[in-house]
Amino acid sequence: MPKKGRSAERSLAEKEEGMSAKQRKTDNPLCFDSPASLFQSLIAPMDVEQFFQQYWEKKPLLLQRSDPALASYYQSLFQLSDLKQLCTQGLEYARDLNVCRCVNGKKKVMNKEGRVNHSQLRKDFDQRRATIQFHQPQRFKDELWHIQEQLECFFGSLVGSNVYITPQESQGLPPHYDDVEVFILQLEGQKHWRLYEPTVPLAREYSLAPEESIGEPTHNILLKAGDLLYLPRGTIHQADTPAGVEHSTHLTLSTYQNTSWGDFLIDVFPSLLFDSMKSDLSLRQGLPRSLLTSASASLDVNKQVCVFLRGLAERLEQGQQELRSSDMRKDFISSRLPPYGLQEEDIAPVGKLPALEDSVCVRFREHILLTVEPSQDNTDEATELVAFMLHSLKNKRETHMMGAHDDDEEEEEDRDEEEASQIQGLRFPVTHLPALRQLLSGERLLVAELPLQQDADKLGLVLGLWTEGLLQVC
């Protein structure tokens, strides 16, 4: 999407909020003291521990609140009237929003080509009773940036959002289920929800669910402004705006896409086998002749694979090997939101150069990850492991959760996007790993006492992190 200058972002934020930071803190029903406190305030009065024990990935949760202050705050997050100003920022159909309606149990997309015109959008909404599905509004709305950035810290997983605005007596989407955990916040008006028993519990894919095959609803719910509804992934649902309600606006906060144990095993198994093959001769022995050309693996092959898997399990249980998640961690850190309110000047080195006699601490700790991976250097020597300290400080809020676009772009623009999406961070020898982990523990540490043998290595480590804006003398 078009890039906005920081001054424009600040100006927009001031217009949206229209109050001082002190007032916002006083009036805000959400608590931003920590990621955990934010989530607790989001699902209040439900207790966090109770939520994860009884509802998370298990069953829907409805929180109905008769709280005018909360309803007013929810409405401030996004409302129908915001679209007029947003349409001046170069919104495009499909990329930034969809116009759709459920007709005879099927989704009818009513998008135009190119830029979104507000007058045409309102005509489709008012006259054709179309739903407006706005993609990833946190790109434009500062408060949603703040909420989702904190939730990404809390879950350790990407958190996306969509806004759905539906006129009365209309429905935007047919019955379906999602591959994400969904928190639905009712911002304006009312929405009638029908939930059904999952056919694919904890689904890994989005899918339509034909109404004739889903049976009777397990829940009939009327959400009002300020209410929250949680749906585990795989929950079949459909929603419409009732008669007599001018329109409904709701926000979905979604997370935990492809974040299952199975996804984790897919991620860690390659490195686990790579490490095991270094020390286990049996894993380096050749396959039986013609195994790859046979129609199927024999029972003996299956038994041998079981032997290998048991050996891997035993070494893990005995602490002889370490699991190294790589792709999942890199995808998260490179795709997540940057810290809320971060300005370019905030990333610059802070304070004095660290020296051996100084105590240092890590900045932006919740936005840093360590990974250990095989070196990609092309040398004649055996492949070695290296450590990477990756961060999300230079991630672009404007492209958060937007994925790839199908439209053709100039070669220069492609290069710019590719460069912007590259993972940010620093590379260190794997011998530096204990020192890096110690720094990420959150303690104030004396440079001279870092667990590295040479003073030059200690200084090189902290100077590298200081230059990247990740460390300061404290």
General description of the model:
This protein has 474 residues and is of the alpha+beta class. Helix content is 33%, strand content 21%. The protein has 15 helices and 19 strands. It has helices at residues 6-17, 21-27, 35-42, 48-54, 68-77, 82-86, 118-127, 142-155, 261-279, 281-284, 299-317, 327-335, 411-420, 433-440, 455-467, and strands at residues 61-63, 97-103, 106-109, 131-135, 159-167, 176-177, 181-188, 190-196, 207-208, 219-224, 228-231, 236-240, 247-255, 359-362, 368-374, 385-391, 424-429, 445-446, 471-473. Strands 1-11-7-13-5-4-2-3 form an eight-stranded antiparallel beta sheet. A three-stranded antiparallel beta sheet has the order 10-8-12, with no helix packed on it. Strands 18-14-19 form a three-stranded antiparallel beta sheet. Strand 2 and strand 3 form a beta hairpin. Helix 3 (35-42) packs across helix 8 (142-155). The chain is globular and about 75 Å long. Residues 1-25 and 408-412 have low confidence and may be disordered.
Topology readout:
Elements: H1 6-17, H2 21-27, H3 35-42, H4 48-54, E1 61-63, H5 68-77, H6 82-86, E2 97-103, E3 106-109, H7 118-127, E4 131-135, H8 142-155, E5 159-167, E6 176-177, E7 181-188, E8 190-196, E9 207-208, E10 219-224, E11 228-231, E12 236-240, E13 247-255, H9 261-279, H10 281-284, H11 299-317, H12 327-335, E14 359-362, E15 368-374, E16 385-391, H13 411-420, E17 424-429, H14 433-440, E18 445-446, H15 455-467, E19 471-473
Antiparallel strand pairs: 1-11, 2-3, 2-4, 4-5, 5-13, 6-9, 7-11, 7-13, 8-10, 8-12, 14-18, 14-19, 15-16, 16-17
